[in-house]
């Protein structure tokens, strides 16, 4: 017996609908669910097997049922099977329920007195599908007005502002745990001996040629005193190492050579050199730098700096 949708289309269609639904609803990260979770593959295999088994079973039942029909029933079934979609009874019944159209034979009873140049008007009812759709729009409009104008629901602009604010918070939280995305706004001073040792190694390799191994200054300025050209806090030093010193006479930018985490360690090591008093230091350059946010006055009235670092210069 003829099917509306052939089996070679129906079976793959059902399978891939189920397959797509599982991939959509199962959170498997950057891998397909059927690869990350072996049980999904097992389920899909069993499901495909059952689909094929059901199709075979239904096909067998159809053949047996057809063989049990009389010749007259077979002839009638053959005629019904060859009917087009619009000629089928179920389609006609559906369209009648959706449109409520009157048969051509009864149109005379629907004629109105209106006559426009020979064009006559019928008093047909509006299609039910159109009426129901109109009612739905009314209900939607009322719900919309109540939600947004009466109850003060969030509109698209408000939702966008909230999402942008949350995105900013998420980015800031991510930057705290993503060293390679660190910048001068998020950098913090390191005090762990292992970090300082790494910073010293980088400083000795890349910075000692200009600042001396002890930081006393040579071509570059002295990094052990409290005079700074571009600021002596961890954020300022990080910025100077990353983007370079003064135009035309400062040091080069190291952002293309060192990673943000490495620059943080170098900057922290430089700050650890404060007050180390190396032999024959270079004369101070710049101005005495005081971190207004990190400085504090002890009980004896002496100002100390808890976050003074910068290479700059």
Poorly predicted ranges:
297-313
Order of secondary-structure elements: HHHHHEEHHHHEHHEEE
**How is the biggest beta sheet arranged?**
2 strands, antiparallel
Query: Compute the gyration radius: what is it?
Result: 41 Å
Shape: elongated
Q: What portion of the residues fall into strands of 2 or more residues?
A: 5-15%
Q: What is the averaged pLDDT score?
A: 83
Number of helices: 11
Number of separate strands? 6
Helical residue percent band: 40-55%
The rounded distance between the terminal residues' Cα atoms is 89 Å
Task: Name the strands of the widest sheet in spatial order.
Answer: 1-2
Instruction: State the secondary-structure class.
Output: mainly alpha
Write a structural description.
By secondary structure, the chain is mostly helical. It is built from 11 helices and 6 strands. It has helices at residues 7-25, 33-36, 38-68, 71-81, 89-99, 128-150, 156-176, 193-206, 208-211, 234-243, 260-272; strands at residues 111-116, 119-122, 227-228, 287-288, 295-297, 303-305. The longest helix has 31 residues, at 38-68.
